[in-house]
Write a structure and sequence with these properties.
Number of domains: 2
CATH topology of the largest domain: OB fold (Dihydrolipoamide Acetyltransferase, E2P)
Shape: globular
Helix content: 25-40%
Radius of gyration: 21 Å
CATH architecture of the largest domain: Beta Barrel
CATH class of the largest domain: Mainly Beta
Number of helices: 9
Largest sheet: 6 strands, mixed
Number of strands: 12
Structural class: alpha+beta
Length: 299
Amino acid sequence: MNARETAWRLFANELNGSTTSLKGDEEMSPFYVVTRLGAVVNRVLIAGVLTEKENMGSDEEPLWRGRIQDVSGSFFINVGKFQPEAAAAMADLEAPCFIAVVGKVRTYNADDGRVFVSVRPETVVEIDESVRKQWILSAAQSLWSRLIRMKKAIAISSTSEKELIDAGFTEEEAKGIDIALNQYGTPESSTYIKIIQDALRMLLPDNNIDFGFPEDVGPDEIDIEPVQNVAERQDMEDAVLRIIIELDHDGKGAPRDEVEREAEAEGISANELEEISDTLMDKGLIYEPDLRRLKHIPY
């Protein structure tokens, strides 16, 4: 591996789904997370909406924790005294806002066996919407490339590291794909196809567009929603977003119970509202100031 690691552009879904890590035997050996698509990740460049930040330390020695939403989920960052520039930047930020972070990945093993991934920032900067859109496009292109590489690898009779290298993969690509397939099995490509479509829709004026992605992108069956269903879903998302904006009378957010009543009056059930709220949060359009309110993130 290179002394200065590449900062991968990854969506939260792929990073958070990683449970396999690599570390050398030496004390200063770099730490890597291996994703389900075979990315061997030490550093990342992420961007999205900072929806939450909290100082878990003290004024003299702050320990900032933050949540950043992209189109697929949330990144979690931890900034302490060993990252003074990033900590100073976090202190000046006011959520919600667009930010970009370069940092190293870390994992935490919970008592129940679950593995959580977080990012320890080296730099934190506030950005505007245009920079965020550039990152979304770059991350979508990167994800698509990994999907195609994984498809080509699975098509080879043997997916050992040596066979992959002989087939034209780089040593790093072969190592990551070999580990990913052995640790996770064949990835569900439909999950990543949906992320790419959601990402591209955010960049285009017509977010109901059908991109016509081919289904032959992996060995598993891909079920892409019909255009009509996508349009109906978008109408429901637009309705919920409008309700949240209209019910935010004091700038503190729309009360959840009032949102639920208004949504039900428009034919949106409580379960559908919960799913749509999660989708709007994943897209960085709303956030939760507290458990009883939903608030629009103005661009």
